[in-house]
Design brief:
Helix content of chain B: 10-25%
CATH class of chain A: Alpha Beta
CATH topology of chain A: Glutaconate Coenzyme A-transferase
Structural class of chain A: alpha/beta
Low-confidence stretches of chain B: none
Strand content of chain B: 25-35%
Number of strands of chain B: 11
Number of domains of chain A: 1
Helix content of chain A: 10-25%
CATH class of chain B: Alpha Beta
Largest interface: A-B, 46 and 57 residues
CATH architecture of chain A: 3-Layer(aba) Sandwich
Order of helices and strands of chain B: HEHEHHEHEHEEEEEHEE
Strand order of the largest sheet of chain A: 4-3-2-1-5-8-10-11-12-13
Oligomer: heterodimer
CATH superfamily of chain A: Glutaconate Coenzyme A-transferase
Shape of chain A: globular
Radius of gyration of chain B: 18 Å
CATH superfamily of chain B: Glutaconate Coenzyme A-transferase
CATH topology of chain B: Glutaconate Coenzyme A-transferase
Radius of gyration of chain A: 17 Å
């Protein structure tokens, strides 16, 4: 079998399988945004966007864009029945009060204990924290969707994050372009591999030592 | 507080903003909810050394965030360009794309403006606290990160929390949809964002609105910002 890195849509598809019927979900910028296209049939997910909308549906049709109806990524939404609008204070009360079931975020680095760094590249010297720290602290479950290594090939899953942290010990699952990994008290567990990848090859691109799951399998989509 | 809140021009609505004022200005990141006319009037008015509390430091004009194709929105970047800004307190201060820096990022790197980055929920809650007479509160957001630097840390329920202080301003410049003459306001869609909370936390709250309606035309069950928080309303022509 040929060894390939999964594309962004496939990563999003794998994350979407984690979303359960009735979950209230907040999707971050980048790969996480793509997840809404891949929620398994028969499951209804409620989307929350921190700019103040709950239960939003599809994107607006071309020509129907309205600056007063966007998600937190600035994408235009369609007007659909069942939406609710609210202020930023109420929106973050939902996040900080533990009312969001799943937050899906991108990351620059994740540590083996689930520390997340996703808001500032040190070399830029300035960054956008946005709602990431609130989501990391407040969502019931945080899933990271990202490429396994950075553009230089350096591991993004590390023993200790050296980039500024977004939250400590907040990440429970990491879905990358070569693996699915779970953060547990017993260590960083390799659960699934992309087609054609061996655990040794994934270990070579991961800084901390992996615990191989007894039921390790090829990624399930 | 005057009962009648309607003011005839944007110019008059910002005329008494002094140098050194603290301002809350709405805008999530796109033009929805941003008081573009009041920002333009403040640029023309020219008050300097402003401290601006806002979610971003001006993004839409550079990257087109949330901007309907063909629109050319004004944001607080024009105040930075006009050298009126001393400091920005924001959660999303710069462009997501380093290759397309905003006016603010250039000014920051040149040492011309100061920045305090605040997590977005902490920003909203600090403003809410400011409006509600709560001087400070504890939150787990930011514990164990750079945000903890210089802050009191206290454990509740086995978890670290940071002490965060309320934010207040001299003026809030906001964007509503419909208002009546006594300052009851309704917002539209996701443009409510920081508007509704900022309205509560400034000494003088000024809104530009699409429409000023007769008393009784707004459903009292559906008022988003009651008139007690509002001082001036200007209709967008």
């Amino acid at each position: 079998m040929t060894q390939e890195r999964l594309d962004r849509e496939i990563i999003a598809m794998r994350v979407a399988r984690e979303l359960q019927d009735g979950d209230v979900v907040n999707l971050g910028l980048g790969i996480p945004t793509l997840c809404s296209q891949f929620v398994p049939e028969g499951r209804t997910v409620v989307y929350h966007a921190e700019n103040g909308v709950l239960n939003y549906g599809p994107m607006a049709e071309e020509g129907e864009e309205d600056a007063d109806l966007t998600n937190a990524g600035g994408q235009f939404l369609a007007w659909v029945p069942g939406m609710a609008f609210f202020s930023s204070a109420e929106s973050f009360a939902m996040i900080r009060g533990g009312h969001i079931d799943v937050s899906v975020l991108g990351a620059l680095q994740v540590s083996e204990r689930g520390d997340l760094a996703n808001w500032m590249l040190p070399q830029r010297g300035i960054g956008n924290v946005g709602g990431a720290m609130d989501l990391a602290a407040g969502a019931k479950r945080t899933i990271v969707a990202m490429e396994h290594v950075d553009k230089t090939g350096a591991p993004k899953i590390v023993r200790e994050c050296d980039f500024p942290l977004t939250g400590k010990g907040c990440v429970s699952l990491i879905v990358t372009d070569i693996a699915v990994l779970e953060i547990t008290l017993g260590g960083l567990v390799l659960k699934e591999t992309a087609p054609g990848w061996t655990p040794e090859e994934i270990q070579a691109e991961t800084e901390p030592t992996l615990v191989i799951a007894p039921d390790l399998q090829e990624i399930v989509l | 507080m005057a009962i009648q809140k309607v003011v005839g021009s944007f110019e008059a609505a910002v005329a008494d903003i002094p140098d050194g004022a603290w301002l809350m200005i709405d805008g999530f990141a796109g033009p929805g909810g941003t008081p573009q006319n009041l920002i333009a009037a403040l640029r023309d008015h020219g008050a300097k050394d402003l401290t601006i509390i806002s979610n971003t430091a001006g993004l839409a004009s550079v990257i087109g965030f949330g901007t309907v194709p063909g629109d050319r929105p004004i944001d607080i970047g024009v105040l930075v360009d006009n050298q009126q800004v001393k400091k920005v307190i924001a959660s999303f201060p710069v462009s997501p794309s380093p290759s397309r820096p905003t006016s603010f990022e250039k000014a920051y790197k040149a040492g011309k403006v100061e920045l305090e980055v605040v997590p977005q929920g902490t920003l909203a809650e600090r403003i809410r606290a400011g409006g509600a007479g709560i001087p400070a509160f504890y939150t787990p957001t930011g514990a164990g990160t750079m945000m903890a630097e210089g802050r009191e840390v206290r454990e509740f329920e086995g978890r670290e929390h940071l002490l965060e202080h309320a934010l207040k301003a001299d003026f809030a410049l906001l964007r509503g949809h419909r208002a009546d003459a006594i300052g009851n306001v309704v917002y539209r869609g996701t443009s409510r964002n920081f508007n509704a909370v900022m309205a509560t936390a400034a000494e003088v709250t000024v809104l530009e609105v699409d429409e000023i309606v007769e008393l009784g035309d707004l459903d009292p069950e559906g008022i988003h910002t009651p008139g007690i928080f509002v001082d001036r309303v200007v209709r967008i022509p």
